[in-house]
Amino acid sequence: MQKLDTPTYFHIWCPEIFGFKGGIQVYSAFLLQALQSLNPHCQYDVFLKHDLQATPDIPFLPETRFHFAGASALKIRTPIFAAQIISNGLQQRPDLIIATHLNFTVAAYWVKRLVGIPYWTVAHGIESWNIKNPTIKTALDHANLILAVSSYTRDRLLKEQNLNPNKVTLLPNTFDQNLFKFAPKPDYLLKQYRLKPQQPVILTVARLTKSERYKGYDKILQALPQIREIIPNIHYIIVGKGDDIPRIEQLIAQLGLQDSVTLAGFIPDAQLCDYYNLCDVFAMPSKKEGFGIVYLEALACGKPVLAGNKDGAIDALCHGDLGALVNPDDVGEIAQTLIKILHFAYPNALMYQPEALRQKVIDTFGFKAFQQTLASHLDKHFQSIQPIEKN
């Protein structure tokens, strides 16, 4: 992207980027980083609903102005944040508003209706499927551009919301290729979990909440007895925390898997790469994933990946070119596919070439590719609109 000819002023509206590190938050941080890398001379006001302060782990231009609503009580935070972004949008008149959550488009719609500010939004996954709220439907219909993180999400939006296909485009997730790299199994984790270096390990990294049981970790637990018949020393590590852990522990006990499963709990971001490198296959047979950054992180560590074939993981694994796609409801298929992968018998040679696998995921989903795609969307946008007259 060529640098914009005239000073351009961006409003970025995000749930948060400095605190909780879920998929939407990570995407929002990369989006801000890419925007500022492309256009360092532009002005940026970033509005964060749940954050309290900025932290140095997210790179941003020093003159970036952050506005935090996280100090407000949760029950009144939504109206306070809405008032903040609407009032600032009306007063400051940015050239473009980018809302990284669909819920914020309602405020953006009113700013556009009152003073003509164009706005984009991002459709990630489950929050953009089966939308019933008429105000969000109206706001989506009037958005200048909708960035979908996967073809699956884009297709569902177009099918369910009857939107103009020309304004629903793709900006897939990216990942930190400097953080996630191929390395030998870490000795300290082998000792911590009493694992032998050659012992096969399956890994899942996910939020273990009742609302996200669709991640499929329970299906892997149900598949483990079949896997143990062929690979007796198999070990399954689940990284994550949440309110579904008591049910998981009960299922482990019912299946007699206490010696074969480790619930690792919350793991800091700085240690995640070590866990990916500890495993022999990363598995998350989800069926409601908008994309799944964890798949990219595992691939960047050169690990074979198994995912579901009914959601955005299809995009993350490039329709099976980068990994194995299975029916997330078929425990038998999950078990047999994991056995094939661990026996080096799965018919995709790339899965067993760590460096080539890493390079392929970097070429396809690395930050450079993310930035180039964003630059193309920005070029088209600013070429197609008239300058906004400001008071």
Q: Give me the CATH superfamily of the largest domain.
A: Glycogen Phosphorylase B
* Secondary structural class: alpha/beta
What's the helical proportion of residues? 40-55%
Proportion of residues in extended strands: 5-15%
User: How many domains?
Assistant: 2
Q: Work out the number of β strands.
A: 13
CATH class of the largest domain: Alpha Beta
Nearest-angstrom radius of gyration?
A: 22 Å
Tally of individual helices: 14
Please give the alpha-carbon distance between the first and last residues: 29 Å
Structure description:
It is a single chain. This protein has helices at residues 23-38, 74-92, 105-115, 134-142, 151-161, 187-192, 217-230, 245-254, 269-278, 293-300, 313-316, 331-342, 354-365, 367-384, and strands spanning 9-14, 43-48, 65-68, 96-99, 119-123, 145-148, 168-170, 201-205, 235-239, 261-265, 281-284, 305-308, 324-326. A 7-stranded parallel beta sheet has the order 3-2-1-4-5-6-7, with helices on both faces. 42% of the residues are buried. Helix 3 (105-115) packs across helix 4. Helices cover 41% and strands 15% of the residues. The chain has 2 domains: 9-174 and 367-384, Glycogen Phosphorylase B (Rossmann fold, 3-Layer(aba) Sandwich); 187-364, Glycogen Phosphorylase B (Rossmann fold). Strand 9 (235-239), helix 8 (245-254) and strand 10 form a beta-alpha-beta unit. With 391 residues, the protein is of the alpha/beta class. The protein has 14 helices and 13 strands.
